[in-house]
Write a structure and sequence with these properties.
The chain is an alpha+beta fold and 357 residues long. It has helices at residues 2-17, 24-62, 79-93, 106-127, 133-144, 157-174, 178-199, 224-234, 236-242, 259-265, 304-329, 338-350, and strands spanning 68-72, 75-78, 206-216, 249-254, 282-284, 287-300, 332-334. 58% of the residues lie in helices and 13% in strands. Helix 3 crosses helix 4 (106-127), helix 3 packs parallel to helix 12 and helix 8 (224-234) packs across helix 9 (236-242).
């Protein structure tokens, strides 16, 4: 009987151990412990959420603009610099009707341009190129100084005020500071001087080819192969006139002036096409070209516009060589991938002009 009572007492104790305490003070203690655990868990969850938000903000808004996208001998260009430069183009073109920025290529092209600009800036003293404040001021006047009316004094306060107003409006539209824009002008003037230095070295006279030319937009929908076939039966001049390109006459072209169709006019094997030869459609990024050879001249003066085109091609060749050499030697670095490309594109879209569909 005593043993049975002991077993019953043990059963009640075990049962009571899993239930709420009967003492009010003990019950309060348990509740406080539960609340403390709940606060700890809740606080931890809130902390995790805040941390996730902060990490997202850092990755999306704080970190990317400061990530280095390119470097030239220790001078770096961040993702933010790249976005700012593209937004300048947006500001310059926001009032042009039907202007559309090609975001499939623009970011990388602008990064390369920033690198080209810095390479030339560092090489300029060795090339004898310098830019003075007076040259910057002259360029600003060329861009923003109002045209004088008959009888109006060119040095009047009114003209100066209009000049400053025009310049200020431009800076506001492009979201640039005075120092930023004038630094960009220096870049333009530096490249212009490099181009002129190559212009002065163009050989003249030199061998040239006289050509006619049909130019098609790559996305015009006009089948170039079909036009090429019609040229055989209807004549080059007739097809050119049909496309509103007069008779297609282009002029005299020296070697390397037009890379788009240079290989056809001046093939590597030296076998020049006979006069009257018409090329197959030549597809290039800038368009589709069909070229007709008219005649040759082994020693003809190069006209100034063609000289300038040769100089521009020489500048591009110089830039390509410098970029390649710098990359191989390690003093030029490009840090750009698909994730960075996507971030730049998203930032540019935020400030893209709205279009009415």
């Amino acid at each position: 009987m005593v043993q049975q009572n002991d077993n019953n007492n043990r059963s009640r104790n075990i049962s009571n151990s899993g239930s709420e305490p009967s003492n009010p003070r003990d019950r309060l203690s348990v509740e406080l412990k539960k609340q403390k655990v709940a606060y700890i868990i809740g606080g931890t969850l809130i902390g995790i959420i805040v941390l996730i938000v902060l990490i997202g903000y850092f990755r999306e808004f704080y970190s990317p603009p400061r990530v280095v996208a390119g470097e030239v001998r220790g001078v770096t260009f961040t993702m933010g610099d790249l976005v700012q430069r593209i937004r300048v183009l947006q500001g310059l073109n926001r009032y042009q009707q039907d202007y559309m920025m090609d975001l499939s290529s623009t970011p990388f092209e602008f990064l390369q341009e920033l690198i080209h600009v810095e390479i030339l800036k560092q090489a300029a003293p060795g090339l004898g190129i310098s830019i003075s404040p007076s040259e910057i001021e002259e360029e600003l006047k060329n861009q923003f100084y109002p045209e004088t009316q008959p009888g109006q004094e060119t040095g009047s306060n009114q003209l100066e005020q209009e000049f400053q107003s025009n310049y200020s409006s431009f800076l506001t539209a492009t979201n640039l500071t005075k120092d930023e824009y004038e630094s960009m002008l220096g870049e333009v003037l530096r490249e212009r001087k490099l181009t002129l230095s190559f212009f002065a070295t163009v050989e003249s006279p030199q061998a040239q080819t006289e050509i006619s030319l049909i130019v098609l937009d790559r996305y015009s929908g006009t089948p170039p192969e079909e036009l090429r076939g019609r040229i055989e039966s209807e004549g080059f001049e007739s097809i050119s006139a049909e496309l509103n390109q007069s008779d297609g006459y282009f002029g005299w072209v020296p070697e390397k002036a037009f890379p788009e169709f240079n290989d056809f006019l001046y093939p590597a094997d030296g076998e020049l096409p006979d006069p009257g030869t018409v090329s197959n459609p030549i597809i290039h990024d800038s368009g589709v070209f069909i070229v007709k050879v008219m005649s040759y001249n082994e020693s003809k003066d190069v006209e100034d516009p063609v000289k300038y085109k040769l100089a521009m091609e020489a500048v591009q060749a110089w830039q390509t060589t410098q970029l390649q050499t710098g990359s191989e030697d390690g003093w030029v670095k490009i840090n750009f991938n698909s994730d960075k490309y996507a971030w730049v594109t998203d930032q540019v879209k935020l400030t893209a002009p709205r279009t009415n569909n």
